[in-house]
Amino acid sequence: MKMAVFWGCRILTSQYAYEMSVRQVFPKLGVELVDLREATCCGDPVKSINIFAADYLAARALALANLTGSTDLLIPCNRCHFTISEAKHRMEINEKLHLKIGELLTEEGLEYDPNIKIWHIIDLLHDAVGLEKIKETVKKPFRGLKLASHTGCQVIRYSDLGRVDDAENPRKLDELINMLGAETVDYSEKLDCCGAALTYSHQDAALSLAGSKIKALQGLNVDALVVCCPACQMMFDSEQKDAGTAVGAKLDLPVLYYTQLLGLALDIEAEKLGLHLNQSLVDKLLTKIPA
Amino acid sequence: MAEPNEASRRKILVKLGRDEFLDCFQCLKCTSGCTALKLLELKPHEIMKLVRLGFVNELAASEIIWTCATCLKCVQRCPQKGSPYHVIMALRNLAVEREAKVPEAYLKAVSQILENGLSQTIQKITTRKMETFDRTSLKLPKISAPKESFQAVFFKALEEKQE
Fold first, then answer.
1. What is the mean pLDDT of chain A?
2. How many domains in chain A?
3. Which of A128, A123, A100, A98 is nearest to A113 (CA)?
4. A109 pLDDT above the threshold of 80
5. Pairwise CB contact (< 8 Å): B76 & A45
6. ipTM beyond 0.95?
7. What is the arrangement of strands in the sheet containing A146-150, beginning at the earlier edge strand?
């Protein structure tokens, strides 16, 4: 299966561990990744300024994917996934918008072909690669680990758009974790937002949201929190110390990407998965995994 | 004093691509599940009501429209498909057109996209063991910047007013 990849900004500029682990695990599961050339922002932060300009950026990403010759596009960031999926939908129902954006793309010698399927790591792994295949490929299953999942907001809402999992009870990330031999917990804060979007305007509130969720999870004695979005990882991992200050708690919960966890189960070296880049104390988790 | 304004109200409808606002019966499902309610006092059902009544100028000038966490729960849960999130985004766009006070980080993101295509600058990461890494030392491929023609086209897109 050949898959074009749109990384977005955050993965390419700071959340390197996600990129490293995605690049490591997918080829081992029969998915060949093809980078887009000259990719730009998906339009997410631009929506607040000018929705049309944001839609143009999203369409540009799709047009670049068309250039790779693949009709499948993997978007590992939840926010890019939503922005591009919604822009695609808007162009499908609004012919005038479609034409206007098409004209702009022509100026750059690009063309948007709507015949492209958008994927996230969740549905690509769960629905296309398949749980059984993942289970078979695992070399070092985890025993006795208790993990919490955080699927994030924008990849599950809103359902009319066609999202990767149920909006109110997402289960796929849990099932993917279970395939690696670890147990998952249900917790009442599961759907709580990481707060990343608020870093643009209300940094303290953003950190409080992230901190409250981690604080609640620490109370449940989970071994780690597993995420699948660079914005969520930024809040729960990169900003964990400040999030702790914001909620007045000492936070030391390991947080990692699902692709990092999967990579460990596939017996890929921790450093190749970027685990040295996580800011949270992932060592605490790594010592519980037999070498 | 606050005053309903029909022209501004229509502007929001145009941005939403609708002829009329959908019937909101103030069930409060949006507000009761709003991520920004507790910390920032965002009450989406109030925004819906105020926009419907035409108090758009007041909202476009207000800081409250910049408190949305974009979790999309309101879009998902509205029984009338009224979608406060989209109304808030339309209000933000109107605020920008009117040169109201916009959080600096959004403007910075846009200027960075104009500059090199990405909304963020490339960072070096200092690890838990105080080692520093960048894309090169992590053996990640070089990022290919867009050609100059991109800048002109994106600038043109930004000039577009949805009216």
1. 97
2. 2
3. A98
4. yes
5. no
6. yes
7. A183-184, A146-150, A224-227, A255-257
Tell which of A119, A138, A169 closes a domain: A119
What CA–CA distance (Å, rounded) separates A205 from A249?
15
Q: Could you say which of B73, B75, B119 has the minimum Cβ distance to residue A9? A: B119
Question: A214 and A144: one domain?
Answer: yes
- Is A276 close to B127, i.e. CB distance below 8 A? yes
**A136 has pLDDT over 90:** yes
CA gap A200, B109 in Å, rounded: 9
| DSSP character string of B38-101 | HHH---HHHHHHHHHHT-HHHHHTSGGGG------HHHHH-TT---HHHHHHHHHHHHHHTT--
How many CB pairs lie under 8 A apart between chains A and B? Answer: 185
State which residues form the domain around A226: 130-286
pLDDT bucket at B163, cuts 50 / 70 / 90: low
Measured CA to CA, the distance from residue A184 to residue A64 in angstroms comes to: 38
Does residue A291 fall inside a structural domain? no
Give backbone dihedrals phi and psi of B92, rounded to 5 degrees, phi first. Answer: -65, -45
